[in-house]
Specification:
alpha/beta, eight-stranded parallel beta sheet, 8 helices, globular
Length: about 180
């Protein structure tokens, strides 16, 4: 669960994280976007650092080994740099056209393949991913996908989540879906 509410003040984001923590504990990782302090205070599993966030090494000095640190990137070079900087995973996008990032041209599965070629970290694809194209992202080398509108924008949220899970599961036991909120 990627908690992303950039317009919330820290106290409100913390309160929301504290509500989500018991729900996710033992079931899913709780990753707080861009706020290492809130992630630590809420006992989240990690923090996702955008390209304009704290550098990974600075966040690591604050968090130590208590948090997984992810880096959002938009290129293979960015993924390679995230690995060199000590990130634990990479959120890579924009893969397909996305309403949440209309100014980022989609890189498609080729972006995933190029990042995988230079980065051994877990790669999570994001951007315009849904049940119709998620398998392409995994086939290109991503370890998982993150979705927003594919689930939250659906008329029937539970059905959309099940359809995406079925697409990604392919008979495997490991969960490979991250939902941003």
């Amino acid at each position: 669960m990627h908690l992303r509410e950039p317009d919330l003040p820290a106290a409100e984001l913390y309160a929301l994280a504290r509500v989500l923590r018991p729900v996710t504990r033992g079931r899913a990782l709780l990753i707080v976007h861009d706020r290492v302090d809130v992630a630590l205070a809420a006992e989240a599993d990690g923090a996702q650092l955008g390209e304009r966030s704290l550098p990974v090494e600075a966040a690591r000095r604050v968090a130590g080994s208590r948090l997984l640190l992810g880096r959002s990137v938009h290129s293979a070079a960015g993924a390679a740099q995230a690995a060199r900087d000590g990130a634990d995973f990479v959120l890579l996008g924009t893969i397909f056209t996305s309403a949440s990032h209309p100014d980022h041209p989609p890189g498609g599965p080729a972006l995933v393949r190029s990042a995988r070629a230079v980065c051994a970290l877990p790669l999570v694809g994001i951007g315009g991913i849904d049940a119709t194209n998620a398998a392409q992202v995994l086939a290109a080398g991503a370890d998982g996908v993150a979705v927003i509108r594919a689930i939250l924008g659906a008329a029937y949220v539970a059905a959309a989540a099940r359809a995406l899970k079925a697409t990604l599961h392919g008979g495997q036991q490991q969960e490979r879906v991250c939902s941003s909120s």
